[in-house]
Amino acid sequence: MGNGRLAVDGAELYYEVRGAGPALLMISGAGGDAGYYSAIAEDLADAFTVITYDRRGNSRSTGRTGIPTTLGEQAADAHATIGALAEGRALVFGSSAGAIIGLTLAVTHPEAVAGLIAHEPPAVNVLPDGDPARDFFPELAAAYAEGGAPAAGRRFAQGVRGEGTYRWPDDLWKRFLGNQDHLFTTEWPAFAAFVPDEEALRSAPFPIILSAGNEDRGTYYARPSIEIAQRIGAPWAEFPGIHMEYLRNPAPFAAAVRVLATQLRGPAGRAR
């Protein structure tokens, strides 16, 4: 594994690169960093050049200014990472908020994306008016305003199936806790406001796959994946396990990523 730092507009991004073969950029979700994907990146490194990074303001990257971060900036960072480490084009996998960033990247920098797997984007704004899940982001913002990061973090974990049933790596957990204030003060508004550009995604010049875990049916972070897939005419795939199965049981999750990423590179994927 190699690692380093990449200078982008207003920040330096910590990154890790493993393996050889077609480039696969993996974008982490809220509060996380490259460590979310360490185990599955090792599994995939025999077939792909796997690129992971800490998003701006998180963990080992710089750029924590207190000013709200836009999805455009998040996508620009992913674009710059692909440009510097993948010769300008890569397959992209994003989970949770990372899937929201991946869907934004697909619209703002389509030339950089060879194919996209969006796993459980919590895009609650695509759900029907009055759906209780649409209150998720405001409820967490209110919890943070009232009780700070500990209260919001507890509420967050309570809403994610399977959390508390397995142990995170100690170093990742420590960094995650250190990212909470940044998440709720500067990243949360953009994630809360996200609405996919359906027209641009329908006409994307590369294949897009939406997906969710088989233990997450009915959750606020799984249902939007089905809705988005239907609206843009993209295939939907079922992954094994829970929202963060890549931490709980990485081997089968990596196997699912391998299958889909390989399909995206094949003739059927390129034809879309």
In short:
The protein contains eleven helices and eight strands.
* CATH topology assignment: Rossmann fold
Order of helices and strands: EEEHEHEHEHHHHEHEHHH
Which structural category do the helix and sheet elements fall into?
Answer: alpha/beta
Main sheet specs: 8 strands, mixed
* Total beta strands: 8
Highest CATH level, the class: Alpha Beta
Distance between the termini: 33 Å
Shape: globular
Considering the chains and any ligands shown, give keywords for the structure.
alpha/beta; Rossmann fold; 11 helices; 8 strands; globular
Q: Could you please describe the fold and organization of this structure?
A:
With 272 residues, the protein is of the alpha/beta class. Helix content is 44%, strand content 18%. The protein has a single domain, classed as Alpha/Beta hydrolase fold, catalytic domain (Rossmann fold, 3-Layer(aba) Sandwich). An eight-stranded mixed sheet has the order 1-2-4-3-5-6-7-8, with helices on both faces. Strand 7, helix 8 and strand 8 form a beta-alpha-beta unit. Helix 1 packs across helix 10 and helix 2 packs across helix 3.
SSE layout and pairing:
Layout lengths: L1 E7 L2 E8 L4 E5 L10 H7 L4 E5 L17 H15 L4 E6 L1 H12 L4 E7 L16 H23 L11 H9 L1 H14 L4 H5 L5 E6 L9 H10 L3 E4 L5 H4 L1 H16 L1 H5 L1
Parallel strand pairs: 3-4, 3-5, 5-6, 6-7, 7-8
Antiparallel strand pairs: 1-2, 2-4
Helix pairs in contact: 1-10, 2-3, 4-6
